[in-house]
Amino acid sequence: MAVRGGIWGILLLIMATFAIWQVTSGKARIDGDVLSLIGLEKTDDTARKPDIETVRDLLANDANQAIIMVSANQQDMLETATRALASDITNIPGTKSVSLPGYDAGNLARLSDFYLPHAQSLLSDRDRALLRDGNGEAVYQNAVKTLYAPASMLSAASLRADPFSLLPVFLAELGNKLGSSGIVQRDNHFHTPIIISLSPDLRRQGPDIAWVGKVNDAIANAQSTADQSDGLTIAKTGQVFFAVAEATAAKSDVQRIAIIATLGIFAMVLSVFFSPLPLIGTLITVGSGLIAGIAAVTLIFDGIHAIALVFGASLIGISVDYALHYLVLPADGKSPTARVATIRSGLSLGLLTSVCGFAVLAISPAILLAQIAVYSIAGLIAAYVTVLFILPLLPVRSVKHRSLIPRAYQKFDDTLRRLQLPRLVRGVGALAILGGFAVCVLFIPTDDDIRHLGHGNDTLTTQARLIGDTMGMGGNPVFIRIDGADSQTRLQTGEAVQNALRPLIKDGTVGSGFGLSDMIPSIKRQDENRTLIKDQLFETYAPKLAPLLPINIQTPNPDAPYLHADADAFAQFPELANLHDGMTDIVRLNAVTDANAVATAIADIDAARLINPRATITDQFAHYRNWATAGLAIALLIAGILAMARYGVIRGLCVLGTPAGAMLVALGGAAAIGITINFFTIMALFLVFAIGADYVIFFSESQKHGQQDATRFAVFLSLISSILAFGLLASSSVPVVSAIGTIMAIGLPTAWVLSYAMCPTSVKADQSDA
């Protein structure tokens, strides 16, 4: 026993070292970003990228941007405050760049330099419509006005490349399509945005909380130093602010609950044994499960998602049950080997049931479910081995039966043992439970809307809406996806989409639409522009314009290079990444009031379709829920086969009916009190299944070894520890966490009571089942 325990201890040290090295070296990054949770499915690399992956990439780009809107009733004061705040934010670690669209002219100059060599291939929608209708006179007159405008920025170089001043009109229209980005005056107030680009590793490596804290300090300082008469207000939006607010709320709840649960479990073990040794044994068992789980996941996967860790660590709570079943065995002078032998069969069957159940998740296409499965299976096996090899090496400590918890248990036990149902009634009841659970799962209302997953922050939501209404920025990034084998095909489709959207933009159904084809026209469109410019402008109006210019007008070169959406363009304008994703181009929409009207407008364009990220992510979680539900059904089937093979058909059904009944009551009870049934509540049912199955299996196996009293007491202690560890989550302010806690708080006591009803412990009942 000592040799096996020593070998296992060495293996645990190796696994711990490996896990620590993987995480600290960055080989396996722990990621808490919800964006890392979606779109990580096992798909064919040659297949078209799924919508969820495109959404994930788009939101990942958006996650690296934040918007702050500064408002004041005096424009000069607004500029002073905006520049000062922008300077403070620039100096915060994690800020990549800061731009002030209302005051910085650098972006316009950059655009002008980029487009000028191609000016005679570019036309605004307005100028193209005029030339197509044969109304070149209006374009010519606009060129004359631009030439003599007091604030004209024309130069010899610009006139040589663009004598009819077509580019300024193109750039002005491009700016309008981008949305309001300068200074907006509304209700006697002036508003201007600060656009912040974040370092790509800010959220991945975890300093986002510190960055948000310093930004909040900078905003508070700006507001405190301003004169109240200036009416200075500052609003902010961006995924980083919402993520930090959500994480802060969740962290506060989890820390409070963890402290209470930990102290409660420590107090429970100490009050039962009056010795720290059983507590040490419990910690060793749980720790071995955590170590093995993390080591296994980091060995197989490139990264670990925090949700997988939470569910995995929660399931490792079963390891407390394993430890308690050994620790409560009476100190009757038996050898450690003999003591282990009395519980081995029950632990083994309980482990096998849980492992088979969670192995189902490993074959799902969702990486998240696979991570949970690997973590849980490895952790449970490690905890099981620790109970068999290491706990027997600790000195035995007897239960103090006169203490409060054993006395309370005795009263509950005496009451519940009176639940002596006939064998046939129990069998019929088990079948009814299984049927009821199947009906409940199939017909109970579900809602996977991602808005129900978080705590929410009313202040941030209000500020985001204000920025969207005032500046046309932020908000829900609805977009149109355009697929095509080559860039020119996609650009032409993008132009067709813009034509279809134009009536909707005109009537206000869509605030604006902006895609890659707006910045870089297709070669077909550039050819059309060149023809219109040559035929409708140069041939007729060049002789009239020539005397007004200080340069000689040159006829457009038909062999001039085209503007391409190539690596050079993307290098000069990194923001184009938000409009392009592999073989997909994106038209981003703003202020959409009727998504159905948009879908109808582009229905005839085969390669384009409307994508709502929130709906897409919601569908993804529904996909996860369906897989988890199917996995739960298969786990029940496997558990039923194992139980009937071990105990016979009727008693096997009774064993299976216990966790099924607990899940039925938990699911129905949660729905009755308004808990949203989604992926996370189904995953909580997995925990109820695994722990509830252990309860009834331990009850059944203990009758074969004469350890009924010790086993029932161990299950009672396990119930207390599980309620402390999981049930307290029901008090969380985060809906997802609260839902998990509620499911556990309802399901586990139900499983405990059903274990008495479905597996009677009287001698008479035992004989009737023999």
Description:
By secondary structure, the protein is an alpha+beta fold. Among the domains are: 156 residues, Multidrug efflux transporter AcrB transmembrane fold, CATH 1.20.1640; 219 residues, Multidrug efflux transporter AcrB transmembrane domain (Multidrug efflux transporter AcrB transmembrane fold), CATH 1.20.1640.10. The chain is 65% helix and 8% strand. Strands 2, 3, 4, 5 and 6 form a 5-stranded antiparallel sheet that branches. Strands 8, 9, 10, 11 and 12 form a 5-stranded antiparallel sheet that branches. Strands 1-7 form a two-stranded parallel ribbon. A hairpin with a 2-residue loop joins β10 and β11. The C terminus is likely disordered. It is a multi-pass membrane protein. One of its GO terms (cellular component) is plasma membrane.
Rounded mean pLDDT is: 83
CATH level 3 topology of the domain at 403-466 and 616-770: Multidrug efflux transporter AcrB transmembrane fold
The major sheet is characterized as:
5 strands, antiparallel
What is the name of the CATH class of the domain at 403-466 and 616-770? Mainly Alpha
**CATH homologous superfamily placement of the domain at 403-466 and 616-770:** Multidrug efflux transporter AcrB transmembrane domain
Question: Could you tell me how far the N terminus lies from the C terminus, measured between alpha carbons in angstroms?
Answer: 34 Å
| CATH architecture call of the domain at 403-466 and 616-770 | Up-down Bundle
Radius of gyration: 34 Å
User: Which percent range fits the helix content?
Assistant: 55-70%
Strand content: 5-15%
